[in-house]
Amino acid sequence: xxxxxxxxxxxxxxxxxxxxxxxxxxxxxxxxxxxxxxxxxxxxxxxxxxxxxxxxxxxxxxxxxxxxxxxxxxxxxxxxxxxxxxxxxxxxxxxxxxxxxxxxxxxxxxxxxxxxxxxxxxxxxxxxxxxxxxxxxxxxxxxxxxxxxxxxxxxxxxxxxxxxxxxxxxxxxxxxxxxxxxxxxxxxxxxxxxxxxxxxxxxxxxxxxxxxxxxxxxxxxxxxxxxxxxxxxxxxxxxxxxxxxxxxxxxxxxxxxxxxxxxxxxxxxxxxxxxxxxxxxxxxxxxxxxxxxxxxxxxxxxxxxxxxxxxxxxxxxxxxxxxxxxxxxxxxxxxxxxxxxxxxxxxxxxxxxxxxxxxxxxxxxxx
Length: 367
Ligand SMILES: Cc1cc2nc3c(=O)[nH]c(=O)nc-3n(C[C@H](O)[C@H](O)[C@H](O)COP(=O)(O)O)c2cc1C
Fold this sequence. Notes:
With 367 residues, the chain is α/β, with parallel strands linked by helices. The chain has helices at residues 35-47, 71-80, 98-111, 126-131, 139-158, 194-202, 214-231, 249-261, 265-279, 294-297, 312-324, 337-366; strands at residues 10-14, 52-54, 86-91, 116-120, 162-165, 170-174, 187-190, 206-209, 236-242, 244-245, 309-310, 329-333.
C-alpha cells in the first residue's frame, strides 16, 4: 500500500532538555541543555518551518544525560518563548498520574492558545524506575497502563462526570474545569513493539517510532493502519531520524564516522543492554531496539537507520521515500542543533516542498 499523503510532511525536533546531546559520543557538540540555548533554538525552529518540538523525560542520569530538565515545565517555557511552534511534553505514567497530567496540560493549553501536546512514553530504564521508587512493570503491562492513562486523559478532557474503572486508574463522576480549548492537546506515544502498535491503533493520535528504512517503516504502518481502520480509529505516524546534512555526501559520511569513532563503548553497550532487557518481555521481540547494532545504539533512537545523511537533495528525496512509506512527520536530532535546524529549514525543507508539489501534480494528472 502507498501512503503518499497529500498533506505536507511535518517536522519536529528533539528538545535537548537533557545534557550530552542526542548521541552517546565524545565528538564535539555545540548543543546545550540550558533554557537560554533552548529558547533561542525554539525560535529558530519556528522561523525555519518546524511544526513541533518534542521534549524528553528523564529522572536520572545514565549513558550520558547527566543533567535533565523536567519536560512539562520546560515545554511551557518554550511555548512562552514562541508564537506558532507546538511543543510536545513527554509524560511517563507512574511518576505522573492522569489526574495531574490532565490538569497541568489543560492549564498550559489555555496559557498558550492550544499549542501543547503530550508524548505518553511507557519507559525503558529499569535503573531509573528503581532510583525513584517506581514499580517496574513487564513490557506489555507498561503498555496496558499507558493505554488506560491515555483513555483517562481523553475522558477527563472531553467528558463531564467522567467515570473510569481500570486496573491502574479509577475516576468517579469527575468534571475537569476548564477543559482544554481547541485545538485539543494531541496525544503522541513512543514505541514499536506489538503492544505499542496495538495501543496506537486504538487510542493515540500519533505513533512515534525509532529510525528505520522506508521498507521497515511501511511494515509497521501497514500493521497499524490496518488495525486502526478495523477499530474505527485514526492515527498518524512520526519517524525518528538523526540528520547530518552537508554540502557533499562525503562530508556528511565523515561526520557520522567521527560520531561512531568517538562513541563511548562502555556507555553504548550498557545502554544497549538496558534497552534490549526492557523489551525482553515483549513476547514477539519486535521492540524499538530489537535489531539495533552497536552503531545504531550510538544514537538513542536508531536515528542513523533512517539515513538522512548526505546532501540537501539526498535528504529531501529520502524524506519523500519515508513519506511514501507512511510517515506523516519526521522527528529530527542534530549534532549542533541551532545551526543545523536553521540549515535544514533553509536548504532541505524548500526542496521537500518542491518534491511534494511535483508529486501532487503527478497525482492530479493521474486522476
Ligand atoms: C520518539 C520517542 C520518544 C521517546 N521519549 C522518551 C522519553 O522522553 N523518556 C523515556 O523514558 N522514554 C522515551 N521513549 C521510549 C519509550 O518510553 C519506550 O520505552 C520505548 O519506545 C519502548 O519501545 P518498545 O515498546 O518498542 O519496546 C521514547 C520513544 C520514542 C520512539
